[in-house]
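Researcher: Can you fold this with zinc ion in place?
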Amino acid sequence: MQNQIVHESISEMKKYAKALQGNKNYVAKKTAEDPEYFTKLAQGQNPKYLLIGCSDSRAPPNEITETDPGEIFIHRNIANVVVPTDLNINCVIQYAIEHLKVHNIVIMGHTFCGGVKAAMKQDSVGGLLDLWLNNLKLVYEKHQDLINQLENEDDRVACLAHMNVREQVLNVWKNPIVQKSWQDGHPVMVHGWLFRVETGFIEELEIEESIPNNLSKVFKLNFKPTQPQPKFKQQIEEKEDERARSPSIRKRFQRMQSRLETEIKRLTITLQDANQEVEKEVVEQVSEVLQKDLDFTTDDN
Ligand SMILES: [Zn+2]
């Protein structure tokens, strides 16, 4: 038993070491083609797409699209799901649109997806995973009559993977950041792909939901203008001026100033017989404390 564990551990370590050796080979190959390759890559990224795909190791986005590092901004999770409250995916979407300025978002599902397959079964796969798969089950429930007509399980998985892509495209459209991109003059398009593991080809899905206008009115959002209109801006400035001249702030300031002067006078009288240096030091300290108090009160307003 122990020998078996040792043997398995060594075998796993070898696989791990192979990955690091693979990296050395990769660097050697790239620098042989272009000695400046990594220096150029370090200067920044300018991806044209955001791809949301499945974590499945058989669907590596760069490899199957023959793209290089720096060309696709990628987010992956189990079964390429866009959950509206997922902080992680929402940060990726916001960064891709607002900072990287991508114009295309691709949802990529794939055939033989383990997540999709598990979602069609009733066997539990564990607490958190079951929760996550509920996102897929919702899609399955919606289309089960169509999917269950297919005899072959692989076909049923492919069909649900396809339906899931359509649903996630819609979820991307429902996203406020994506919707707002159109109003901000930076229109983002959303596409659906199904990667066929068995052939290596990507099928571009014809999805009527690719057009934002087809999004249900229930989810359509109207945004307030980002930049204040000139008249509105003027009103804000006038209000700020008014606030600065406010009698209550002025009174408070005068009150603090008067308190400061009184405190200094009192201390000067108390310490009139003391050493001149000590007196000076104490007065300075009190002044400093009161001035801080005064600054704080003024800032606070
Ligand atoms: Zn998958």
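Model: Folded with zinc ion in place. Strands lie at 49-54, 72-77, 104-110, 189-195, 202-204.
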